[in-house]
Amino acid sequence: MSALLEVKHLNVDLDLPAGTLHAVRDVSFSVQKGKTLSLVGESGCGKSMTAMAIMGLLPPSGSCYAEKIEFEGHNLLKMNEKKMAAIRGARISMIFQEPMTSLDPCYTIGNQLIEALTEHKKVSSKEAKDRAVFLLEKVGITGSASRLKQYPHQLSGGLRQRIMIAMGLMCGPSLIIADEPTTALDVTIQAQIMGLLASIQTEFNMGMILITHDLGVVSRVADDVAIMYCGQVVETGNIKQIFDNPLHPYTKGLMECIPVPGKTKPGEKLGSIPGIVPTPIGELWGCSFRSRCSLAQAECAAKGLELTTVSDQRAFRCIRDMNITDTALNTREML
Amino acid sequence: MVEFALKTENIKKEYQVSAGVFHGKKNLKAVNGVSLSIPKGSILGLVGESGCGKTTIAKMILGLENKTSGELYIGGKNIAKMKHKEIAKIIQPVFQDPYSSLNPRKSISKIISLPLRAQGLSKGTQDLEEKVDDIMEIVGLAPRLKHNYPNQLSGGQRQRVAVARALIMRPQVVLCDEPTSALDVSVQAQILNMLLDLRSKLNLTYLFISHDLAVVEHIATHVAVMYLGRIVEEGTAGDLFNNPSHPYTQALLASVLTPDPALGLPQIQLGIEYPNPIDPPSGCTFHPRCAKRKEKCSKVAPEPVIKSGKLVECHYPDNF
């Protein structure tokens, strides 16, 4: 089966006054129909830039080069702006983090939902409105006819995010890119919105790229995971492999950082990764995580560190033998 | 007898908000009778959804907002009889967003020493410098950062600066309002570890406001759950997390997504709408969202009941 989206060796560079910032370096992944791929990492590790490169929405200072970005059999790299605009929003849609800033405060919800469809398809406004009402009900908004006349400021954050999801679905896309869709929301609403996204995804058999730094959310909804650090993919695998047997020190570090009720002892020290994500400006070599890694050796600075493939989907970027047991990880398993 | 670092007695805060052009003004009860007491050296986690009044409580404690009624005691003294400067000596805040809580035009050493200068406690430049150096070492900031500006620092370092500024007065109570929610997970862990360290080193008391229950469970010794301006459940952290009694606490705990791929997404029966505080529901304010509501709930507001150190405000609590 061919993948819905296949990205091979994607690189994104940003030209900044301080030099060239390598925001995304040699990133490859694929998304299958009906499956969720999650890009995980701290802020500044290139998750959002990867999404923007796929959508063709890089900032003016950005340039992207890749072996291929193939979506439904079309090479997105070779598309002109007009063709790209026809795909963006219609076949691939995006849900952003902050629903208040991504909705236009001057137009009603109805206007914005209907425009999302009429921009791409030749439909009457009646048909578009019917579709909007249908989708609002799908995302759990009652009294949808009156909601269409409301403005974004009249709605709560959870409702606005539901509207954003409905808007993303207006044209029946086959791929959804959700960029931190629940970060700005309360925990109770977060669980509901994620449940909603997952059920809609199954119903319409869509592929999804879920961008987040919240490992809790990832573990509950993703099928495959790619952990990113400093613009590179440092580990890939399916959800079980990543959580049961993390191979890269960064993945392990991330997991030890979060307090888990029932596992971490209250009041005890959490594991933490010292330092901060370095800014990938200028010429880079070796492992980018070495400055924060507790297991770093002199060889980590050697040039050219490639992904080591373990099996079909499983790969990691570290020179260590993956069989070396990590004491910190073992103690956590024992608890 | 337990000594309380901070105590509130039935404090209320009402705002007058416009209800529309022809409707005049309406009362918004942001905080509707909250009694909290934090024993010295403990950490009270205050949790609840946005809009429930957590931050309003924080503002009243800091003296940034006048309470409508009720009494507030800090270190045994009534806050109404204290001057702002006196309050600031005992209690200091750390805010959510270290990107907006630090003045971008002041150097780090100026920012950290500001409370001392504002209180007129500086005994010359030398003394100030020494105190700044001390506190920077305590919170784990490299001394060379002293002459830098906030924009040259990472999020975690900025939050350390905010903590240093709060601690330079050697307060008894530190009020942390969502101190880690703007930070990455790895940095969050660093800051949480530091807060726990400082507590034992300097014998501090924290009021820790957060909506992240996993973080609260990790750090807090006592927890109070807030809903629409009221405390609906309060108890020791272990008791509250292991045997939640109020349906709202149960729902909050169920919606925490712990990293476990074996579990799916939880089914939460809360509905979507957080009620509008201008027009709160009748009876128990939680009843429209409660899965266990009965007829009585929509008519009679429950009274708080205290049993073996735990407070619950519900007609039909579990494990209680």
Number of strands of chain A: 13
Spatial order of strands in the largest sheet of chain B: 6-7-8-3-9-10-12-11
Low-confidence stretches of chain A: 324-335
Secondary-structure element pattern of chain B, one letter each: EEEHEEHEHHHEHEHEEHHEE
So what's the overall shape of chain A? globular
The oligomeric status of these chains comes to heterodimer
Structural class by SSE content of chain A = alpha/beta
CA distance, first residue to last residue of chain A: 42 Å
Given this structure, which CATH class of the largest domain in chain A is correct?
Answer: Alpha Beta
Largest interface: A-B, 53 and 50 residues
The CATH superfamily of the largest domain in chain A is known as P-loop containing nucleotide triphosphate hydrolases
Largest sheet of chain B: 8 strands, mixed
Q: Helix segment count of chain B?
A: 9
CATH class of chain B: Alpha Beta
Question: How is the topology of this model organized?
Answer:
The complex is a heterodimer of chains A (335) and B (320).
Chain A: E1 5-16, E2 19-31, E3 36-40, H1 47-55, E4 62-65, E5 68-71, E6 74-75, H2 81-87, E7 92-95, H3 99-102, H4 109-118, H5 125-138, H6 144-147, H7 157-169, E8 175-179, H8 187-204, E9 207-212, H9 215-221, E10 224-229, E11 232-238, H10 239-244, H11 249-257, E12 308-309, E13 315-316, H12 327-334
Parallel strand pairs in A: 3-9, 3-10, 7-8, 8-9
Antiparallel strand pairs in A: 1-2, 1-4, 1-5, 5-6, 10-11, 11-13, 12-13
Helix pairs in contact in A: 4-5, 4-7, 5-7, 7-8
Chain B: E1 4-18, E2 25-39, E3 43-47, H1 54-62, E4 69-74, E5 77-78, H2 84-90, E6 91-94, H3 108-118, H4 124-138, H5 155-167, E7 173-177, H6 185-202, E8 205-209, H7 213-219, E9 222-227, E10 230-236, H8 237-242, H9 247-254, E11 305-307, E12 310-312
Parallel strand pairs in B: 3-8, 3-9, 6-7, 7-8
Antiparallel strand pairs in B: 1-2, 1-4, 4-5, 9-10, 10-12, 11-12
Helix pairs in contact in B: 3-4, 3-5, 4-5, 5-6
